[in-house]
Amino acid sequence: MNTLGLRMLQGKLVAQGSLVAIVTPMFEDGSLDIAALQALIEFHIEQGTDGIVIVGTTGESPTVDFDEHCLLIKTAVNQVHGRVPVIAGTGANSTKEAITLTQKAKQLGVDACLLVAPYYNKPTQEGLYQHFKAIADAVDIPQILYNVPGRTSCDISNDTTLRLAEHNNIIGIKDATGGIERGTDLLLRAPKDFAVFSGDDATAMSLMLLGGKGVISVTANVAPKLMHQMCLAAIAGDAISAREVNAKLFPLHQKLFVEANPMPVKWVLAQMGLIKSGIRLPMVQLSAQYHEVLRSACQPAQLL
Is 74 among the catalytic positions? Predict the structure, then answer.
């Protein structure tokens, strides 16, 4: 059976495999296109995506307001209707705000929450520990840490991650550092029921072959079937099959970041006819100089 299904972690059901960091479809004026989101979720379920991560940074979470944030989560939960897990981005650089968003996401019925490291204010490791612990203490729902220092200017160390892994509600981490040595160290020292997800498409296969449980992926937005197949092989330890599929995806892993995410991936999705071209300031349309670069990157995966 070609499915990764669900895995029990800390007594909670959470996805493994290819989890799409889904974009937020918008009309050309920047307003939310809810019908397109519903259709996009159906596309992902049909193509084998193992879980939907809604309102992450790829979903332009910094520029949606609280009501829009809740509407997007509610739409995803209702549209998925239990067929795959839904994980909601509820992080903030304010601990109080992150608690409020996480509480609301739980009320709306998500399976887990994804909590990005506080950005801009640059807390210490003790501050990070207390921040995530406070959220986990306040809301009884599975929570996944999200470490992306390239965008937050804040790095959750492996030692701090391991301290937080002792909390029953903190069941994993999305590691977007791209550091295989660092990921290996974390996998070797983490509890067996603590899930390490890649947040870096280019190194995701390697992390899964080392024991990672999946990837929260930008590439999966445009190539969900191939990403699912690659994850299926990598998690099973089938390196030859994983490498064969990943070779088709690797140009996308690289070129979907020629400009700030999600500008490139939204451009490709619009070219595929899956969404309209809307995006919110300060993000803008992909520069014309990169259009052919992206078209070429799509060819091995036969997308355009």
Answer: no
Write the single-letter amino acid at 133: K
* DSSP classification of residue 93: S
Pairing between β-strand 6-9 and β-strand 12-15 as defined by DSSP bridges: antiparallel
List the structure tokens of 194: 């603590």
66, 67, 70, 72 alpha-carbon torsion, rounded to 10°: -110
Residues 105-137 have pLDDT tens digits of: 999 999 999 999 999 999 999 999 999 999 999
- Residue 4's pLDDT is 63
Answer yes or no: is 157 within a domain: yes
* Residue 3 belongs to some domain of the structure: no
Tell me which residue range forms the domain holding 169: 8-243
Q: Are 39 and 48 in contact (CB under 8 A)?
A: no
In this structure, is residue 298 part of a structural domain?
A: no
174 is catalytic: yes
Mean pLDDT, rounded, of the chain: 95
Q: Tell me, what's the pLDDT at 11?
A: 56
Q: Which residues, other chains included, contact 62 with Cβ-Cβ below 8 Å and sequence gap of 6+?
A: none
> How many whole angstroms separate alpha carbon 13 and alpha carbon 263?
32
Q: What is the β-pairing status of strands 112-116 and 170-175? A: unpaired
Q: Which of 104, 174, 213, 266 is catalytic?
A: 174
Determine whether 54 is exposed, middle or buried from the number of CB atoms within 10 Å of its CB (0-12, 13-18, 19+). Answer: buried
Q: How far apart are CA 245 and CA 226, in angstroms?
A: 7
Q: What's the domain count of the chain?
A: 1
Sign, Cα dihedral of 132, 156, 55, 28: positive
Domain assignment of residue 257, yes or no: no
Options 12, 106, 146, 266, the catalytic residue: 146
Beta bridge partners of 12: 9
